[in-house]
Amino acid sequence: MGHTTIDDGADLHTGVTAVVPRPPRPLPAAVHTGNGYGKLVGSTQVDELGVLESPIVLTGTLSVFRAADAVLTYLMRAHPRGLSFNPLVGETNDGFLSDIRRRPITERHVLDALEGASGGLPAEGCVGAGTGTTALGFKAGIGTSSRQVEAGMPVTVGALVQANFGGVLTVRGVPMPVEELVPGAARVRPPGNSCVIVLATDAPLDARQLGRLARRAIFAMGRVGASYAHGSGDYAIAFSTATQRPVLPDAALDPVFAAVMDAVEEALLNSLFMATTTTGVHGHTSHAVPYDRLLAG
């Protein structure tokens, strides 16, 4: 994973996050749309062919097409004889905190995220494509989590989220509205916007089965209080890094489904808990979740 963060302390709070699966590619993959008010460039070919042939890049809404062009540059350099490529680029609208009409993302920003991607513990919160996002009334950002389960073989599921959606924060089934946790918070609230979820697993699964995982990822948003609003672009992308075949039988997938739900829920909460209060364009402020009041509640 790699991030490029743009934060001028004033009107620009945006960036790029890149998920770069190790070769070989293409990999089995699927996309599920929870609510389709968004721009997920390249998704129809993934639906049609059931494979992922590029890194996954996330950014802000009005930068998604420039980012896709930058991914194309990256792929053309890597494959000098290639004649067709399918960049997969998602977005959420960070316009509550960032002046998105300035479209600050350049090709270099995207290439830096792609070329700087590495393993290890990822940065979370106000970084990369999560720099200017808000969710459930609070400052949010990038969140990650993973689970390991036994499904006839050891299976790992990893989740990354770009959280920017509406609803009421819910932790362990208890609603915790921003009005209660941050008394006196500004009445100007961020709109309901979107969420992009990326799932990676080492389980040998085909595209159909990965679609089932992607659907569970969208379901997991409900655990933290998502409203699935009219203007929300909620997408889940799932891919498998496994090289062995045959695929797992469907009857073995229940533990994997549970792992997806748990990992996505925790990633969404991490996107909130790792974020910091941010003031941006038009003086809009998005408050971080106050741990002390949350624990006291």
Automatic annotation (TrEMBL):
Superkingdom of source: Bacteria
Coiled-coil annotated residue ranges, if any: none
GO molecular function annotation: aminopeptidase activity
Region (Disordered): 1-21
InterPro entries reported for this sequence: ArgJ-like_dom_sf, Peptidase_S58_DmpA
Keyword match Translocase: no
Gene3D superfamilies tied to this protein: L-amino peptidase D-ALA esterase/amidase
One Pfam family matching this protein: Peptidase_S58
Keyword terms, alphabetized: Aminopeptidase, Hydrolase, Protease
Membership in a protein family: Belongs to the peptidase S58 family.
Name of this protein: Aminopeptidase
Organism expressing this protein natively: [Actinomadura] parvosata subsp. kistnae
